[in-house]
Write a structure and sequence with these properties.
This protein is mainly alpha-helical. The protein has one domain. It is built from 4 helices and no strands. It is globular, with a radius of gyration of 16 Å. Keywords: Membrane, Transmembrane, Transmembrane helix. This is Major facilitator superfamily (MFS) profile domain-containing protein.
Length: 114
């Protein structure tokens, strides 16, 4: 949750800085936090998702395919914004971070204790 919260705050800050037309350094700081938190969130989410499955190999394959499918689905959104602006990228990053946080809060259940 800490990684998701950090990523979401940084992604929203990235969107605000890009929309405000801030300079490169102001954009790079929240972008760095978003990318750095991706390693923390993605690896742990994958392990937690797979450990709940009796078929770990199949679960891993499905998660990998879904990650690629997500990339394919958001590509047209990035192209819709036109050239010369980082606003579509910032909007997709912020939207994805907010969606991930909401999905975790609303859909994830704690693992059953043995």
């Amino acid at each position: 949750m800490v990684g998701l919260l950090g990523s979401t705050v940084a992604a929203v800050l990235l969107l605000v800085t890009v929309a405000a037309g801030a300079g490169l350094v102001a954009v790079l700081v929240p972008l760095f936090v978003v990318v750095a938190s991706r390693g923390l969130v993605s690896a742990n989410a994958t392990v937690l998702g797979i450990e709940r499955s009796s078929a770990a190999g199949s679960a891993s394959a499905v998660l990998g395919a879904l990650m690629f499918a997500g990339g394919v689905l958001v590509t047209p959104l990035l192209a819709a914004g036109g050239e010369g602006t980082a606003l579509p990228m910032a909007a997709v990053v912020a939207g994805g971070a907010v969606a991930a946080l909401l999905a975790t809060v609303l859909l994830a259940r704690p693992a059953a204790k043995a």
